[in-house]
Amino acid sequence: MTDDQGYWDTGATGNPHIDTPNMDGLAKAGVQLKRYYAAPVCAPTRAGVMTGRYYLRTGLYNTRFGGDTMGKDEVTVAQLLKQAGYRTGMFGKWHLGKYPGYQPQERGFDEFFGHYHGHIERYEFPDQVYHNGKPVEARGYVSDLFTDASIDFIEATAKGGADPFFCALMYNAPHSPWLLDTSHFDQPEGDKLLEKYLKRGLPMREARIYALVDRVDLNIGRLLKKLDELGLAENTLVVFTSDNGGVSKFFKAGLKSNKASVYEGGVRAPCFVRWPGVIPAGSVIEGQTSHVDWLPTFCELAGVDVPADRTIDGKSLVPLLKAGKGATHHEYVYHTWDRYFPNPDKRWSISDQRWKLLCQVGDEGTPSPSNWKLFDLEADPGEETDLKRDHQEIVERLRGEFERWFGDATEGITYAPIRIPVGEPGEGAVEIAPSWAKWEGDHINYTFDGYDWDTIDGWKSPGEKATWKLNVIEPGRYAVTLSYGCRPLDAGGVLRVSAGSSMLEHTVNATITADQFERFSAGEIDLEKGEVELTAEVVSAPGRELMRLNGIALKRLK
Ligand SMILES: [Ca+2]
Q: Which of 56, 199, 509, 513 is the most buried (most CB within 10 A)?
């Protein structure tokens, strides 16, 4: 699975400007799913892939702010395949929870090497990369590293005996910040690829995205070659797809809009599946299929039952794959996406095999039935002509079914960040992310400049505060370390950190500039067992702002 690669970003889906011979080769040797749908954004698709359920059922509702955490009661496809004797590995972007208890190696994967967040800041010598819960100092370019880990995993499994394997290789490319491995004298690959697409007339942004896809394609080629060398190609199902609509705009294959929208360009993804001798080569499936279909598909192939105690939205693709065709599959496919909270009115769609009803309003827009649009996808895949006025009965049928589905998918679920687990046995310091706070005050502000650089800033009046919800597993005394920037003119303010009746006060130090973060030991507090609110509050701030708070770390003292 790639990240933000659009339906149109492969040769096999009609793009004449991009070189993706290995992706195209999978389509040629297998089947192409023409109407395959991801969710509009990253984490929702990943939750659907892992659980076979639409993401709203899993408690996940956002890509940031702690809303990108998949509920602990979910059963993953990796857990199920393990039951069937598979060795399971996950390499690359997870984006379904970063705290202990929510990490891939605790959710059914024997091996995890990758990152928890929606993106990372560095692709060469990547940051924020972990191996089975431990931070890694990674060397090399990110797409190569994740491929290397997958190859090593497959090779070790093959050589270790007869165990079957499930390898989830989930590249973070070509997601922004669109970094190639350039400028190092001994690593010219990225420069060469970029130059190729600039010479083809693409603007810089588009050339970068294509070069990133090209770089993934080269790595897919390495992986497939390894399957050949190990004699595993004939007996391995290979799925290639992406996690939402594309961000590139140079060539769109006639589809409308991009990632994060519910138009086809926001939710259709390329999808090719190869299984030599089983899936007819060069075949095409026209029926609408979904990212929630993988769990039941893989379970059927592995001979393991899907969980019977919950709704599984996905439907096994095995009959379609084996036939290499299928004009129908899901009666309805549903999409909804809002940045802050599940919303059935703002940005949503429902499609059957022919008709699609949607509403797509921006953050400032007011959702209302006047914004609804009805398209005939057979005649108008580019969603240009709104037929709402001519087909009121279809509008009512589709909206009624969407409302039924939304009510069912969200019933009984409270959408809020999980309580941050603190004091898990065997764990080091817990990093409390600024983005997970609820903040109050006239000046306090949250700034997202990337996961390493998200900060709470602007706060200056006494009483302005940020609060985090913790779940303290091991009560006791904890050392508090603060990471922040504070321009010298603003230094000398006082921050109070408290939990229940325990608190400490820290006098803010100057750093070289407000954007250079340093870590300072702030003292100790007592945390009681169970549900605890941790608060950071302005006591006094003499300057423009108290500080730019970049993180709080809690470490239990023995
Ligand atoms: Ca994505």
A: 56
